[in-house]
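Lay summary. Proteins are chains of building blocks that fold into shapes, and those shapes determine what they do. In this project we predict the shape from the chain. Here is one chain we studied, written as its sequence of building blocks.
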Amino acid sequence: MSAVEISNVTKTFRSVCAIDQLSLSVPLGAVYGFIGPNGSGKSTTMRMIANILYPDSGTISVFGQQRAGTRSGDIGYLPEERGLYRKMRVRDLLEFHGELRGGRNVGTEVNAWLERLGLAHCAERKVETLSKGMSQKIQFIATVVPEPKLLILDEPFSGLDPVSADSIRSAVLEMRGRGCTVILSTHDMGVAETLCDAIFMIFRGRKVLDGTLAAIQASYGSDTIRVAVEGGIAGLGDLPGIEAVKDRGQVQELRMGPDCDPQQVLHTLAARTSISSFAVVKPSLHDIFVRIAGPQPDADIQEVQDA
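And here is the predicted shape, written in a compact code that computers can read:
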């Protein structure tokens, strides 16, 4: 049984089709990444899983049961738009959320989470006195303290400094280790690549990628040359078989056409300039994202690329 099964779901807002015939299966116990440009449908999909919004057609099942009526205590949802009772004290707020959703006293768990995320000294402070990053960590604790079986996190790392982001990342992995299924959205492709067991990309309301990073990259093949040369991008024009050049600063990425011979590219470059590094690699998730959702998306991206 999957943790979440979405079958042929469509959701519209007046004349706008936000989700178009979406089908998706989220494995039990996985960290499942949602990626896509702003307005693509990530948050709408998450809200339907959390039973905040309802699909116009299609079905959504969570742990084998179709979602209807009230929200389940087995689901923890952290929305992108943060919201806390700013006049409450931190400990009171967290215990209130935990008891309301978990139906039990969570004082011990609250203390443990505050200590873990470096916020024990803030327990008696009012929420309105906290920084943005502190408030975000408090809302994360409010989401996880009832120990949900399904954790839905919408941009959980947005605005966090690296130390705070690492603490949330560690907590997510620990919860996965306890058997919790985690769905998270992110615009940071590095997070998606390193944290997620599987990645789903939605574009204009439709699924365009779904699978492990390795499988997604394999579907594109090793069509990228990553190179560092003297003079940078200035010396990379008119190379044989190269369709596009992307400047990454200290290195450049060359996208090979179907008939490109990387040895010929290397030979041409060696005759022009000094080469510090040259490697044929699979495209990064960042590059794949831009190919699909950039200003001039690849013409052959029409249907989902099953990975």
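What the prediction tells us: The longest helix spans residues 162-177.
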